[in-house]
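Session log. Operator J.P. requested a structure for one protein chain; no other inputs attached. Running the standard single-chain path with token output.
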Amino acid sequence: MKAIVLDRTIPQGVSFQNVTLGSLGDNDVRIELAAAALNHRDEWCRQGKYANLKDGVVLGSDGSGIVVETGKSVDHSWIGKEVIINPALHWGDNQQAQGPDFRILGMPDNGTLAEFIQVPGDRIYSKPNHLNLIEAAALPLAGLTAYRALFYQGDLKPGQKVLVTGIGGGVAQFALQFALAHKAEVYVSSSSPEKLEVARTLGAQGGFIYSDPNWVAEAKNLTGGFDLVIDSAMGDTLGDLIDVIGPGGKLVFFGATLGNPSEMNVRKIFWSQLTLRGTTMGSDRDFEEMLDFVTHNLIKPVVDRVFDFDQTITAFERMQQGAQLGKLVLKIK
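Structure written below.
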């Protein structure tokens, strides 16, 4: 089968190769993929910035398709059904945090940027009826991460004020949509006025250019302080984020693309009773609740652009440039 694999021997970092699937395990299913979506994780692998990389592994965590074969211990009625894949493997039994065997589909296990994939049968779920296969492929990793950040870690309540930073990426886009569906008052930040305007059309109450030195004062004057901030950048933006959180508020972060902060205003944290919480992906319970939430609220992922499978490198380049608002999806079949 044709697949996109990590290949650090060439400047592009990935290459199309013919990959042979192994034999199907008793508890596995084989899926003919219809679509797959890129995540920043895939781009970081391509750039060699992810841990424990191995050339030859098929990248990709998000995918949708049709079950074409099941192992003998899996219900054969799955064959022919449209499914999406939960890319979180071996979370464990602790809802509070993943266990030591946790990993994510696409590295080190072969992922979804391929014509076929084999995964354990407990990783597949029926595609929500209101989504087509392109939309469904955009949902799993980012939707799961956003859901856990907002509802398990952030304990979001209707009517609360939320700031989602860096609107444009997949998790941020879902955090905006999910928080709005939960009747929160949502604001966003970006370096792009165009992205702020798109976020407003989706329902954001307002937006801030985070490179503007006055954005913190503007946000505090407008909102009085946020109950919840969802962030993935950290670095020295942390000071500004702490400043815009109201008393008793929370900062939930699922990444640190700008690295560690050089300093932290600990006095503001303890005096204002703030909570800083890290989060990553989510448990099987989170995934199932996320699917129910998406289905009940008829939420459709924002798809920035759909590429043919042979345009995968172009899709990676768009992600590298940070030009997208929403998910980049590859049409495989």
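Operator note: The chain has a mean pLDDT of 96.
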